[in-house]
Amino acid sequence: MDRQRKKKIQNIRIMITNILMAISVIGIVFILMLIAMGYNFNENGGLEQSGLIQISSSPKGATVEIDNETQFGRTDISKMLSSGDHRVKISKDGYDSWERTIKVDAGLLTRIEWARLFPLKANTATVAQFSNLRLAEFSDNRKNLFVIEHDSPIASYINIQGDKINTQKFYLNKALGNDESVLDGTLKLIAWNESNDKALFTWTRDKKTTWHIFDLQNADKSVNLSKKYGMEFTDIRIANDSASKLWALEKGNMHIIDLSNQTISGVLIHDVEQFTNNKDVIAYVSTDEDGENRKISIFKEGEKGATPIVDLKDKKPNVILAMGAYWNESWLAYSIDKRIHVQSGTYPSYDKPSKDNLKEVVRRNLEFAPTIAGTNRLNRVVIFAGSCSLTSIDIETHNYFDSTTETELSELSWLDDYLLWENSDNKIIVRDFDGENRREILDVNNQHAVNITENDKWLYYFDVKQADVDADGQAKDKTNETASTEIVYQLKRQKLE
């Protein structure tokens, strides 16, 4: 063989080797990409895409079973699973268990972050006592408790996070303008600001309602909004984190209050029936003066006008609104009689009313007409409720769930960021937002609030104790016929971890 031919064959071999190596590298990269995207071979030898599931629990360190197989490692864990339904069970020694069927979507992340286990043996202690409770409300961030007693002008603002509670006095007479009738009427807490150091209240006396911002750190800085601006407001919502801006509705006219500058705007929108807000954006229902053109619209603070979203062709349907933002994506949810809609994306602007800003992600006909709607603190879950029926929508996955309750709900009561609670026959019943994992966790003799602290360490609740006392308030002598029965509200807590 001559040298030239030998060299040619050698070059061909090198070329073929390089091509095969390149194909191998491309093949390996392609396979790794498929693996990274969750693809694998199923039992039939076909290629299918899996999904990633992340499972958290409170408390942590719990055992996880998926489709009856115990997993390596404890919560919090992540695992690739084939798309479809999987049965997940979470358990830990000394606690009850949590389980449900989880739908895993191909190529997507499914986060289960609401699994909560309760101790089987309760470690309960009484940490405070009150008489004749007028109001008791836990803060949205689950760190504080605000308590008002009927016969006292001094309220209690309590930090409930630590091993010992920390109580500050709050003087109602200062917050309400030194009004001598602070012990009269009904006080109702409407909303907290982001840091939960201010709260929006209504005070109703003699069929007249006034609106107030309580500064819980300094009662002197509280504001009687109705008196300050000389208006009979029918609804007010907090418009920013500090509660220095407020949306205010008066006789169908929408205003915005700026407490920093002590001003109130002129009429921004006319003929408003109802509204809800996501900070500086509102969604509202309005009807023209002639009773025509009833619609749902969006209005952003600072813009010249509103953007219609839905034309309510039938002028009579009952409409319920809710809105929020989750992971920097805004959403609007509403029910029209027995039909619910959820739209997600970006709220449209007046000068750019593109219909693509909000896209419908859920549309569903219900068996009931909702009367209330609400969201959890994270704005991941929106719930429509009516009578004893609930429909919950997970904003992250767009999945919806139907469930029922023992009692008819007038409002949604959250035990933590994902658990709902209700009092039925003096038993506290909890369930996940989707209706799963119903459990009776407490026997209590009252209707006041229940709460799990933000650090997941304590479960707080009120219980009633009847103490026999004489006319002077001393312990009852059983031979003393003047003795009466005093009701004492005990603030109790159970340790969860």
Report what the structure shows:
This protein is mainly beta and 497 residues long. The chain has a domain at 56-116. The protein contains three helices and 39 strands. Strands 1, 2, 5 and 8 form a four-stranded mixed beta sheet that branches. It has a four-stranded antiparallel beta sheet with strand order 4-3-6-7, with no helix packed on it. Strands 9-39-38-37 form a four-stranded antiparallel beta sheet, with no helix packed on it. The longest helix is centred in the first third of the chain and has 34 residues, at 3-36. Mean pLDDT is 88; it is low at 469-484.
Helix content: under 10%
Low-confidence stretches at least 5 residues in length (pLDDT < 50)? 469-484
Structural class: mainly beta
Mean pLDDT: 88
How many H/I helices?
A: 3
Question: Topology of this protein?
Answer:
Blueprint: H1 3-36, E1 39-41, E2 47-58, E3 63-66, E4 69-70, E5 77-82, E6 84-91, E7 98-104, E8 109-116, E9 124-131, E10 133-138, E11 144-149, E12 154-159, E13 166-171, H2 172-175, E14 186-192, E15 198-205, E16 208-215, E17 223-224, H3 225-229, E18 235-238, E19 245-250, E20 253-258, E21 263-264, E22 272-278, E23 281-286, E24 295-300, E25 307-311, E26 319-326, E27 329-336, E28 339-345, E29 358-365, E30 372-375, E31 381-386, E32 389-394, E33 400-404, E34 419-424, E35 427-432, E36 439-443, E37 450-452, E38 458-469, E39 484-495
